[in-house]
Amino acid sequence: MQCSASPKPDRDAKTARRSGYNRLCMAQGRTIYLSLGSNLGDRAADMRRAVEALGPAGVRVARQSSLYVTEPVDFPAQHWFLNCVLEGETNLMPRQLLHALQESNAPSAGKRW
Asked: What pTM value is reported for the model?
């Protein structure tokens, strides 16, 4: 079984063991839930791109909620958010998933998905 994301080659063995990178993937896919939100620019397009980026990051989207507009909490001067929740499946270990999702966000030029 191969995972879509692999450990970074520049990690040393001690860091790899400590972070869990010595295990390339879980024995079987696990169900995960992700919350997505955007409050800048073309929010709907940003959300579409974020969902599309999940496949190459190693996440199979099983279900997606509707999009909801929500008011910002604690920072009322911000724009309102567009949010959704996804149910997905991945073989990645938790840290691998985190890194894969962070890397899939890199092309967004400073935006976090």
From this structure: 0.69
Between the two ends of the chain, the Cα-to-Cα distance in Å is: 28
**Overall number of domains in the chain:** 1
Asked if the structure places residue 113 within a domain, the reply is: no
- What single-letter amino acid sits at 70? T
Q: What value, to the nearest 5°, has the Cα angle with vertex 17 and ends 11 and 23?
A: 95
- Asked if 36 contacts 50 with a C-beta cutoff of 8 angstroms, the reply is yes
Output the domain CATH number for residue 19: 3.30.70.560
Q: Which two tokens stand for residue 90?
A: 């991945």
> Which tens digit of pLDDT belongs to each residue from 47-91?
999 999 999 999 999 999 999 999 999 988 999 999 999 999 999
Using only C-alpha atoms, what is the Rg of the chain?
A: 16
